[in-house]
Amino acid sequence: xxxxxPLHDPLRDSIPGINQHYSPTYWVATAGTPPPNNGSIQxxxxxxxxxxxxxxxxxxxxxxxxxxHGIQAIIxxxxxxxxxxxxxxxxxxxxxSGRLSRSQWIxxxxxxxxxxxxxxxxxxxxxxxxLTTEIxxxxxxxxxxxxxxxxxxLAYLQHEADIKHKIFGYNPxxxxxxxxxxxxxxxxxxxxxxxxxxxxxxxxxxxxxGMLKKAQALGVKIYxxxxxxxxxxxNGIHHLYTPNGVVRAKRVAFCTGGYTGQNLNxxxxxxxxxxxSNSIVTRPxxxxxxxxxxxxxxxxxxxxxKLRFYYRxxxxxxxxxxxxxxxIGSDASNPKHYQLLLDGLARKFPPLAGIKIDYSWWGWVDMxxxxxxxxxxxxxxxxxxxxxxxxxxxxxxxxxxxxxLAQRIAGKDHSxxxxxxxxxxxxLEYPNLFGKIKSELFAPFRRLGQALLYKWYWLKxxxx
Length: 464
Description:
FAD/NAD(P)-binding domain, 3 domains
């Protein structure tokens, strides 16, 4: 096994590594032994279905192909099973996907489509909730607490709560600062909050290992240390080149998330903006620290910043907190990104200022340029699909995306009304200028735009 490279950058590096060790996350340290795998590809092989990427989407796709359609796929993984975002995320299973709110769905697609999309996303959350009862993953139901980090954000939360209730039939609750302190925690950043009942926190790596075991019991094989260095179609057959052999397949699905290299497949080049997210986990809090911070709940929390913080008290009384990080991979280890999390932790919970940090890591999020995911077959003449673009909201929906992707691969997507939704009918898009002009010509300037946008977001979050 190779040493983990923390400076990988998907826009620079063609593959995320070959058989590298996991990132040093809290999840990896506490998940137990990974399920056995089939090693790396050795020699050329012919198969029916190949899934590239062993994160939640890839594993779920293989599981549902076998479970519901009798198709045994193989999974190709560059490093270790669930090596990417699925072992680095915050474990926050929301009733959401992508970066857009339900009010923005209405603005973009109209009320009728927004309602249908809500139904689809909710089905995905319910499916995820069921899986958390079948897999031991330290599931913590109780909802999602959305904190107003400034007084003027309360009006925004009230507006979103009204839309969720009046149009979509949910029952979110607006809480005062005193109610947050009494029921959840003494977050000094909080000026109120919206509590969404639909939310389940999980141990993401235990969850994905559990899904993988279910898939393997149905005959799925996973080949680790087998990055796809090139893919091409020859006489209607997909040829996926790995360091030690070529995999020839009739059908291929790419589920590579934020670790999608630029040269992996032409249909994906310049269609995603990989964005870094950092996380830290403290040592276990003492009883006096629990009392001082008044944590009464393990419900997960996010705040209303554009560059949001996400955080929660874990079951062993450690505090996890994460946020956005460097723009480029070579800057990921810069101490200022670590310090941003320490400062955020101290601002929100002053009694914990200076607390020992036991785990620190970062990972890439697959951000689509229009902020919504896609589960799509980009070329009708080519048996290739991808499921990507969750934008940091994929913990619950990625499993549903895998279920829908399995339907598509099995050819069972013709009569299902949900497949007329935009996330199933339109491809990932190129970068856009001012939200109107989309072109691959803008791709080289994405990182510059991202850096400028981060500065603007910081001003809006903290100053303006």
